[in-house]
From TrEMBL, chain A:
Membrane-crossing segments per the record: 17-38, 50-70, 82-102, 122-145
Top-level division of the source organism's lineage: Bacteria
Annotated source species: Brevundimonas abyssalis TAR-001
Assigned keywords, A-Z: Membrane, Transmembrane, Transmembrane helix
UniProt-recorded name of the protein: Uncharacterized protein
């Protein structure tokens, strides 16, 4: 059988992924840098302006993710859906279990003197989000490993 | 599901990346298909068949 000509290369799936990751980090760094500069020079913008900035920032990130998702092939999508369902769900169970234990056995524990309302809120949210992210990553990796030779 | 993707690709002297480009998927996806551990959707199976100029049942079998 005669060999067909090699096709011309377009940007790879991994290339698009790292482009999105780079753009995400750049947007995060620029937003953080602008906030640091504002805080240093004349104070942070008000809550309405901050919400607007966050709205634009997350809008850009979601637009980038949509761009990437449309171009992702079915196996790449399947890996992420599987990771979201199993890794995210099991991670959420771990996080909620930790919250329940904290509520049951740590409810009377003294709050650190330097704790603020927002720091406690972030700690509680992180207790659930962190296991979800770890579970997602582990499940995503496991899905691809299971499809290899 | 079993398939002849690896043999058909080798007959054409294509790398996994070459086939991935033709199918519009990642190289990892081609690898997963060739191991038989990931079954393609019907649209992708048709695309694979078209790429090799064969019928689906000539490539995939139970």
């Amino acid at each position: 059988m005669t060999a067909s000509p090699r096709p011309r290369r377009k940007m790879s799936s991994a290339g698009r992924f790292w482009l999105l990751m780079g753009a995400t980090m750049l947007i995060g760094a620029v937003t953080g840098g602008v906030y640091a500069w504002l805080e240093h020079t004349g104070g942070l913008p008000g809550p309405v302006m901050s919400a607007l900035i966050l709205f634009v920032m997350f809008g850009l990130l979601i637009a980038g993710t949509v761009w990437w998702w449309i171009r992702a092939d079915e196996a790449v999508r399947e890996a992420h859906k599987w990771a979201w369902y199993w890794g995210g769900s099991i991670g959420m169970c771990v996080g909620i279990g930790a919250l329940m234990l904290a509520e049951a056995y740590g409810g009377d524990a003294p709050v650190p003197a330097d704790a603020t309302y927002s720091s406690l809120l972030i700690a509680g949210a992180s207790l659930v989000l962190l296991p979800m992210l770890i579970g997602y990553g582990v499940a995503w990796f496991a899905w691809w490993v299971s499809k290899r030779v | 599901m079993n398939n002849r993707l690896k043999v058909l690709r080798a007959e054409r002297d294509w790398s996994q990346a070459d086939l991935a480009d033709q199918l519009g998927v990642s190289r990892q996806t081609v690898n997963a298909l060739e191991t038989g551990r990931y079954d393609p959707s019907l649209p992708l199976a048709f695309k694979i068949a078209r790429t090799f100029g064969l019928a689906i049942e000539d490539i995939f079998s139970e």
